[in-house]
Design brief:
By secondary structure, this protein is an all-alpha fold. Helices cover 76% and strands 0% of the residues. It is built from five helices and no strands.
């Protein structure tokens, strides 16, 4: 087995950064875009509007988490690093559809409710479509031979 050189160490670091930040990165893009869309549709937010936005985002996550965990009675398992890497390559779907859901929510409800609805919709769609991306990624990984080329980095 070859010794780990600086290139190998760096490649491992990049893979780890992708694996450990996939969800946070995608959600950061989604929620920032959602905020901009609501601001465009509903105008500058008041302090209560910002709290509605944050509450809508939190509620979207809690609702999906509650459903996925059967009202928090089932432990949710993680994915392998390989599945997460493939899921990262597919994340443009969850990001795009989530921003679209936020735009729709903001366009439909123009008042203060737009702040809560757009962030709720964006969060819910992001988590649900992200689950589909990881399901597809798992199937792609299972269809492969299961042997990666980690040593070629």
């Amino acid at each position: 087995m070859p010794a780990a050189g600086p290139t190998r160490g760096y490649a491992d670091g990049v893979r780890s950064a992708v694996r450990n930040n996939l969800g946070a990165f995608g959600f950061s893009v989604v929620i920032t875009s959602a905020f901009g869309l609501v601001q465009h549709e509903a105008g500058n937010p008041t302090v209560p509007d910002v709290f509605l936005f944050a509450g809508g985002a939190a509620a979207g996550f809690v609702v999906v988490d509650a459903l996925a965990s059967r009202l928090f009675r089932t432990r949710l398992r993680g994915e392998t690093p390989e599945v997460v890497a493939v899921g990262a390559a597919l994340s443009f779907l969850s990001i795009g559809l989530s921003v679209g859901a936020a735009a729709l929510g903001a366009a439909v409800v123009k008042a203060a409710g737009a702040w809560a609805l757009a962030s709720f919709a964006a969060t819910g769609v992001y988590v649900l479509v992200g689950g589909l991306e990881l399901t597809l990624a798992r199937r792609i990984e299972e269809a492969g031979d299961g042997h990666g080329d980690d040593d070629d980095a």
